[in-house]
Amino acid sequence: MDNVLAECPSVLERLYKLNDCSVRLLPGGLINKTFLIIRADNTKYVLQKLSSQFGISVTNKVSIVSEHLINKGLYAPQLVLTDTGDLIGSTSSGNWRLFKYLEGFTKKVVTTVEDSSELARVLGSFHLSIQDCAGIPVGQPKKRGADFQLERLAALLKRFPYHASKGEVELCANMVRKKLKSLPALQSNKQYILHGDPKVSNFLFSNETPSVKCMIDLDTVGWSQLSWELADGFRSWCNSCSEDQSVGVFDVGIFEASLHSYLNTVKDFFPKEEILCSLDVTAHIFLELSVRFLVDAIEEQYFGWDSNAFESASSHNLVRAKGQLTACESLMDNWSEANQVFLNI
């Protein structure tokens, strides 16, 4: 990371003709390395060193979505073109992109129903505003669920039979398999244009008021099932422990507040039955994400990791996997109470 940080000033000068800039790492990015840029006149930008996993088509999509939302009167991350008029600039070390800075701040977790209600309101507004966005290709539905990730993990364990984390990874994977057997079967529903990753840290909170300003990280926008989108939100919003902890919880009170806020925002725009199956999917997503972290505990190449707090990417991902697994346990312990929320709608 130090090498990437040191490279930022030359990237800004070469690609954007920006100089006299201070550069600071922004924490929290799991995929792209992200930096706050402040010029001498206090103009701010956000610079990203892009993961090799994302091609130019992803940033093209971000530009389309951003322009669409801004035209609708919403806040959205807005790209800055390079000096040659491109969305992405390239150097020998990889690809880069620059955004105008949006004032506000992010959170790793929320612990109040007020905050979770705001997240749900903004997500609902995003959903209503994005459905008529042209230029988002439908593509093939992604394979979802812990079963698919477990297949990936089994193949990896054969490739790396002597990995130092193999024992712990296999233990966690067996716990996932056991819990999967007790979960309701997944349903298949219609696809919509959705954000794709509505976790807490992808919402920008306002500096001026106790409200959420907008959603950020538009790389994941695409076609998906609404129940999966909401479940991905609930698994993040209702867990007051961060993804960097080995324990997790599911707060039914925050779940109830979030659900009511979302429904009050979207009204009858989406079929209610698709929303009502999101709790089942939430349990599945906890386990799916747990196995995704187990996969990277072996591969050690997808998710970013904190070298100040962990000795390796593998050890960090093991902690993340355990956190999602225990959050699923918490949801299952409170299953009847959580389901009662739907019955009270």
Describe this structure in words.
This protein has 2 domains: 99 residues, Phosphorylase Kinase, domain 1; 231 residues, Aminoglycoside phosphotransferase (APH), C-terminal lobe (Aminoglycoside 3'-phosphotransferase, Chain: A, domain 2, Alpha-Beta Complex). The protein has 11 helices and 10 strands. The strands form 3 sheets. Strands 1, 2, 3, 4, 5 and 6 form a 6-stranded antiparallel sheet that branches. The chain has a two-stranded antiparallel ribbon with strand order 7-10. Strands 8-9 form a two-stranded antiparallel sheet. It is globular. 38% of the residues are buried.
**Biggest sheet: strands, sense, closure?**
6 strands, antiparallel
Structural class: alpha+beta
Mean pLDDT: 93
What is Rg?
20 Å
Discrete helix count: 11
- Per DSSP E runs of 2 or more residues, the count of β-strands stands at 10
CATH homology superfamily name of the largest domain:
Aminoglycoside phosphotransferase (APH), C-terminal lobe
- Which blocks of ≥5 consecutive residues have pLDDT under 50? none
H/E element order: HEEEHEEEHHHEEEEHHHHHH
- Silhouette: globular
Amino- and carboxy-terminal Cα gap = 48 Å
Q: Determine and state the CATH class of the largest domain.
A: Alpha Beta
